[in-house]
Amino acid sequence: MTIDWGSLVLAAVFSAAVTVGVVSLVAFAVVGLSARVHRPIGGRNDGAPPPLRPAVGTAIAAVCTLAVALIVGYGLFLVVT
C-alpha cells in the first residue's frame, strides 16, 4: 500500500482554504445583518451615523449566505456523485 503524499497535501490545503472561506463568508453575513440593529439612545455611539445602511448590510448578508449555500451544495454534490 502506498500513499500519494502530494495529493493528500493538496486535498488538506484545499480543504483548509475552503473552510476559512466559508467561515469568513458567514462572518461577513453576520456583520452585514448587524447593520439592521438599532443603536441605543444614550450609548457610546449616540448620534453617530451608522457605518452601513441597513439595505446594503442585508444585501451583503444575502450574497454571502448564497455563496456559502452554493459552496456547501457543491461539496455535497461531489460527495454524492
UniProtKB/TrEMBL annotation:
The chain crosses the membrane at residues 7-35, 55-80. Keywords: Membrane, Transmembrane, Transmembrane helix. This is Uncharacterized protein. It comes from Pseudonocardia hierapolitana.
